[in-house]
Amino acid sequence: MLLITCPHCGERNESEFIHGGPARMRRPQDPSALSDEAWVDYLTVPSNPLGAVDEKWWHARGCGAWTVLRRDTMTHQFLPRSDDGR
Amino acid sequence: MERYSLWSLARNALTHHQNWQRAWRSPPLKAEYDVIIIGAGGHGLATAHYLARNHGITNVAVLERGWLGGGNIARNTVTIRSNYLRDESIPFYVKSVSLFDDLTRELNFNLMYSKRSMIDIVQTSPKMRDLRRRMLNMVNHGSTYEPLSVEEVRRRIPALTGGGPDSRLPILGGMLHPDAATCRHDAVAWGFARSADDQGVEMHQNTAVTALLRGPDGRISGVETNRGTVRAAKVAVVVSGHTTTITETIGLRLPIKTINLTAFVSEPVKPLIDVIVNCPDIGVYIIQSDRGELIIGGANDLGLSFRRDIKQSVFEDAVVAMLELFPAFKRLKLMRQWGGTLDIAHDASPIVSRTPIGGLYVSAGWWGGFKAVPAGGYTLAHLIAKDEPHPLIEPFSLERFRHLDFVLESGTTTAR
Amino acid sequence: MAAESMRLDQGGRIDRARTIAFTFNGRNYTGCAGDTLASALLAHGERLTARSFKYHRPRGITGAGQEEPSSFVELLGDHQSGSQPITTVRLRDGLQARSVNCWPSARFDLLALNQLFARMLPAAFYYKTFMWPNWQVYEPHIRRAAGLSFAPDADRVVGTYETRHWHCDVLVVGAGPAGLMAALSAARTGARVLLADDGTEPGGSLLGRKEQIDGRAAIEWVNAAVAELDAMANVTRLSQACAWAYREANLVVVTERAPSTPGIFQRSWRVRALQVVIATGALERPLVFHDNDRPGVMLASAVQTYIHRYAVRPGRRAVLFTNNSSAYEVAADMRSVGIEVAAIVDARAAIPADAAALVPGVEILAAHVVAATDGRRSLTGVHVRARVGGALRPVDGAALQVALALDEQPGRAEQHVRDAVRHRRVEDDRGPVHRVHDAVAQLVARRGLHPEVPHRDPERGERRAAGDQQRGDRGRALGHAADAEQHDAEAGGFEEDRGQHLVGEQRAGDVADLLGDLVRVPRPRGEIKQRLDLANRAVYAPAAAHLAEVLQEPLLDVRHDISSTFRNY
């Protein structure tokens, strides 16, 4: 059971959060300009690295804040995020 | 292949069992094969067996980074069934069950195959409706599901003492799936390995594939491993959990995410439960192995994970659910807990398919892949041999995502 | 009721005034308060307490605690709950227990007929047969024969279960010498400490040995340590509490089996700790030889425990089989309570003089091994041979008991230190007990929890740093002869530390020496917490060099570092 750092509340138990999936790339501004393949990739292909992944966590049973955190999918350690994406 | 039988056991007893033929060899790794199968798990070994048996292709190497049969084939909770929802899914699993029915004889290896049926214990009306819907579709495809009354459920599962009218979620009834079975999972791996080896297939352990390789024509040309380069015109990726790790070495991204699924066993006790018990409303399933241990599983962990670790909350949820219906189990002791890494595809159905890279095949997304081992191997062997999908796996091609032609099976297993 | 013929008149941590009546396999016995089922039965001279799983071979009591591999029992009546090792059942009035996996009894088991077919039943034989007509013809019979105990058929729990969530600065698992010292060191600085011990009383390995600490009996030291801990408001101490799960981010689950609160049957603690010290001690590994499972073959450490803790003589005449010097202390203890030591079979060619001096008059068979045993329901004899070549020969008449000692591969000098901590040894006259709790005290102290710790000696620190680098490399290349020499040379360096005070005066390099590649480096807060594992329960990377580094890091003052978030859970 991880200890997740909520921006407002600090380190709280994983059980207070709901996992919101990987933080995906931004929704394409103009979907119709994309090829079918690219659009389907956006819809269906997630980030699945053996290593660091950016994830959304919702502090549902706490303050209700959403946060994006970087976690290593092998060690489960939380890692510092560089300033990229949301 | 030295036959296994009571007579060979007796004969070998005379020489204190020192002269048994090795179940499989450890040959030196060659520089080239016709086919490379990455992953000596259930599906990989089954594919090797069927490639040799059904298609006469034997110049095959199965490359395994760890030890043979040490992945999910060693970790699953041995539920063999075909009670799926979709028209595309049910025939595949029906075929797998029928292959399992005859597999002990085909492999000459006692899989301890026990056709003992499964009972879904239903505690909510929506789940009852869902199972009835499945039942109606299963009948169309050669599988069987029968409704049971509460009394019949309790009669067949005497240890089920909870779930009475005063409980939180009283039992409403059940569904019986007579086709369901269990067996010894390790025996499946070893049986396929022994048979494949006997037919000339080579299995190489401690051989980790670090990258896929493409030739100048863009087709697959082989793999890079920790023991050097191995060339082949056909490569199949059959590694649960690490599929994308391997395919992304060649730039192929797949609609798959990797999750962790855990299970645990209790201390061994005298026979108590004869059927496979599944409780979909509260998220736990229980099987008693032939050693007497209760094998217990629940939901998968949320979030991506390649780490086969136990989350206390997931473990407790499964235990709490079990104790609701089987309060007498409170005092039993836990023996082992473990996890396994699974792929789930976007629509929770498997992917057995060619890929945009010629000669590269992928068998992934097996979320509940133990029951599919024979049919998965059977159909993947067909695909590799003929470069055309077997009819049973046409709906599971990678192409289906292009057309948003999902085979939606989310929610049809106890693992969420 | 059978008389307790093997009970010693004095000693032990039992209360002879409080007799307890119990039933085992249908027969009535008495024991004393403080006994386990195993010790009480041994006091009556009962040896055959179990049957093996497949062949139903006669089995007895091998260990004294969780390490017991052979004898499993199930409890009857209200306490029915699957099976457990006979050595972990606390004696209670009205206890009814029976051996599992035998019928009709352990003494006479019909299923022992399996042994007639033993040759047909090798490992994994069932994969090679039972195929025709199909497995399900055989399955019901196999299932009935398998399974160790009867499954509980009703919810017989009287009392409620409770869950507690707990946060602490230091969780110490194990209240043996290392754990008590670690808890004391941490608690004296004001840190919140949770000390969880699986035993019925604290002391761990000290309860089973005649050990001395600071010139007095070890039990006195334990009592003083426990008294000091219990007097501190920042310490919570649990007994009969098993830490059984180590989850992510230092979440440890502890089950308290017999809380003192009336009406609470069991309490489960979900503990989040800043630091975890695992001081669970070491278990002896048995030596392997033909027919090593006869009732009467026991671990040497277990024999010591039965003598000192339970005041029981586990036999009358014994042969010890060993490969290191710890067995000589056991032999001396055995002789002191009237057990005749017929011989010590030592696999080593050269026996250290100080070890032999402990057992004057005992025949020592150097460079010999036990090769076979005699006896059916009980051990009656032992056969030895020279370790290299050599014919089998019986030892001088009948031996009633063999005690086994620790396993070490001669020549693996670099394992010398590792084994010294992992298993108890008496090569160093300060004893491993001292080393271990020195090491923990040092480590805990260096983390800023003990105000009296001197900072490291820069000179000594530098010299050690160089050595540590090499040691780190050596950790990756075990078995290198040159390294073995160096290691031996440095092992000699412990001589100069003799006589130093226990707490806080070890130096960084010495800790690295002691713990070698057992230690995973504690990391600063904010990352997944690492832990100090003195019992080598998990696999760690060689970290001696890293340990030296981390001990040079700035000290953390845990008292001021506690986030209020934790307190608000």
Question: What does this protein look like?
Answer:
With 86 residues, chain A is mainly beta. Chain A is 10% helix and 34% strand. Chain A has one domain: Folate-binding fold, CATH 3.30.2270. In chain A, strands 3-4-5-6 form a 4-stranded antiparallel sheet, with no helix packed on it. Chain A has a two-stranded antiparallel ribbon with strand order 1-2. Chain A is elongated and about 45 Å long. The relative contact order of chain A is 0.26. The mean pLDDT of chain A is 89. By secondary structure, chain B is α/β, with parallel strands linked by helices. In chain B, the strands form 2 sheets. In chain B, strands 1, 2, 6, 7, 8, 9, 15 and 16 form an 8-stranded mixed sheet that branches. In chain C, strands 8, 9, 12, 13, 14, 15 and 24 form a 7-stranded mixed sheet that branches. Classes of the chains: A mainly beta (86), B alpha/beta (416), C alpha/beta (569). The B-C interface holds B 4-6, 8-10, 13-14, 16-17, 104-105, 108-115, 159, 161, 184, 187, 190-191, 266-272, 288, 290-292, 309-312, 327-333 and C 80-84, 119-120, 122, 125-132, 134-136, 139-140, 142-144, 146-157, 245, 247-248, 251, 253, 270.
- Stretches with pLDDT under 50, minimum 5 residues of chain B: none
Helical region count of chain B?
11
Shape of chain B: globular
Average per-residue pLDDT of chain B, rounded, comes to: 94
The tally of helices of chain A reads 1
Helix proportion range of chain A: 10-25%
Q: How many E strands of chain A?
A: 6
How many domains of chain A, as an integer? Answer: 1
Give the biggest beta sheet of chain A: 4 strands, antiparallel
Round the mean pLDDT of chain A to the nearest integer and report it.
89
Assigned CATH architecture of chain A: 2-Layer Sandwich
**Biggest sheet of chain A: strands side by side, in what order?**
3-4-5-6
Largest protein interface?
A: B-C, 48 and 42 residues
